[in-house]
Amino acid sequence: MKNRSGYIWVLFILLLILVIDAYYQIESSTVPIWQTEWFLWRVLAVILLILGALFYYYLKAKQKNINELNKFKQKVIEEQEQQWKVIAGELHDSIGQNLSAINIFLQQQLKAVIDENSRLKQASVLTVETIDEVRRISQRLYPKQIERLGLTISIEAMIERITAASGIKFIYNIESIDNILSREAEVQYFRVIQELLNNIMKHSGAKAVTVNVHKSVMFIVTEIIDDGVGFETADPAKLGFGLINIEERIRMIKAVYEFNSEKNKGTRFKITVPVK
């Protein structure tokens, strides 16, 4: 608002100068003012001022639209995180506890049953598997392990889970990056790594992935390299919602990223995150 007021004042002063100048030129001119070279130059100056003002307001309107779009995308992600957090809590605290209680009841009943292959035994095994699956879903929805174990171990545990689920060989070197980002930034950074690794697992066809995380005084530098099928396009918008979602999370933590990919030659992502 202050910048706009300053610009209006500058424009007003310039117009006032032109009016005063025109008054003295009219008073001193011996020919009609519109026939003088002075008049042509002043008309050109007025046109330039008007064009400048229009261009200024165009840039301001464009920047306002960009800012509003960024705020909207950030709000969507924040609400998404909040919803995931609530759902994860319900799964862990409510459904998980109920399943644990059911399993305890089944275990107690099994003690009175001689046949180990009874349906109660099968129900107990299925309940334990369900509890484990609820915990895995809860962790994917909201990474509470960051609060308990720290960001470094959480990333390593995620890589181990993906290795077990996909069979992809991971080579990783992750330096300790605990407590050097804000809690919100830790979650967003974790989400970026999670989304990238999930995309590799689902779409790349990679057999090996290298993950390097190094920290300096000012930055965390992350490199993720796979030997998968790669892709040809350099336009993130054509790569689906996943990468757009990653871009927005990266913007929220004021990070930058770059990627290189060639078809059938793999992909390399590099993310640089400023520390707090």
Describe the protein:
This protein has 2 domains: 74 residues; 127 residues, 2-Layer Sandwich (Heat Shock Protein 90). Helix content is 65%, strand content 13%. It has a 5-stranded mixed beta sheet with strand order 1-2-3-5-4, covered by helices on one side. Strand 4 and strand 5 form a beta hairpin. It is elongated.
**Outline:** elongated
From N to C, what is the helix and strand string? HHHHHEHEEHEE
Determine the strand fraction and express it as a percent band.
Answer: 5-15%
Structural class call reads alpha+beta
Main pleated-sheet profile = 5 strands, mixed
CATH topology category name of the largest domain: Heat Shock Protein 90
Q: How many individual helices?
A: 7
CATH superfamily of the largest domain: Histidine kinase-like ATPase, C-terminal domain
Name the CATH architecture of the largest domain. 2-Layer Sandwich
Mean pLDDT across the residues is 76
